[in-house]
Design goal:
By secondary structure, the protein is of the alpha/beta class. The protein has one domain (about 55-295): Creatininase (Rossmann fold, 3-Layer(aba) Sandwich). Helices cover about 50% and strands about 10% of the residues. It has helices at about 1-15, 20-45, 60-70, 95-110, 145-160, 175-190, 205-215, 235-240, 250-255, 270-295, and strands at about 75-80, 115, 165-170, 195-200, 260, 265. The strands form 2 sheets. Strands 2-1-3-4 form a 4-stranded parallel β-sheet, with helices on both faces. Strands 5-6 form a two-stranded antiparallel sheet. The termini are far apart.
Length: about 300
Amino acid sequence: MRIQSCLTSVVISFLILSVAPGCADAQQGANREDRAQRADRLMAVPNPMEPSDSVWIEDLTYMEVRDRIAAGATTVIISTGGVEENGPFVVTGKHNVILESMCPAIAHDLGNALCAPIVPFVPEGNFDPPSGAMLFPGSITVRDATYQSLLEDIGNSLKLHGFTDIILIGDSGGNQKGMQATADALNASWADSEVRAHFVVEFYTDGWAETEEYTAKVLGVSETKNDGHHDDIWVTAIMMVTDPETVRYRQRVAADLASINGVDISDLEATIALGRKMVDFRAAITADAIRAAIAGE
């Protein structure tokens, strides 16, 4: 019986290995068709639940994304941050923390937009010899080609599913050149479609400059000195809107270090309120720039 069983196994194995390549290809094609049919079936199923009101794609189900697009949310924001040295008080993910508050504010101002997941890895310097932020532990860099390829793949993914205006914004100076190159490359490849990529540099340039002026002239808050850190009140206050721990608020208060460049941040609620005003102001500037970019102005 044991010998017969072994012979049977050998025969079966031989038959499996002897299947013509064409048959295997046909089977794979059938599997692909099955997957496509399943996707079509699932895409036709209505959402059985109350949808989330989040604007973050990663927080939504595929049904919620599908229904948002169908309802007119055809603009999507790809934001890039970074992981770099930011002084003794501010976490290395500073730019990502800022974008956690900024992207939803921009999307809500636009009214027809969603936020793609934040891209946390950007060019921060060279490996050998180390340069820029790579001179400090905790910083993470990627090559320009890696950065741009990632952004292009994200853009093509979003286009595939029905977004028509792909917005690129970056919170760090080193992100801007690559985002412009990515937008140019995407638009060249999408020349025969109505989908467009828009690099909105105003988020970084006008956004920071005008927010600083607004904070000083309208809100009456100005820096009186420079502590020498990779930080300022505009960064700190906006980060505190997301999470005060990202600027080590509790520890700074305990160590009598709750200030930045001469601006006191010890009043938690007041500083968060200041940050919210900055977020709303900068979001409005960016939303207007996005509208102008989509309109071709």
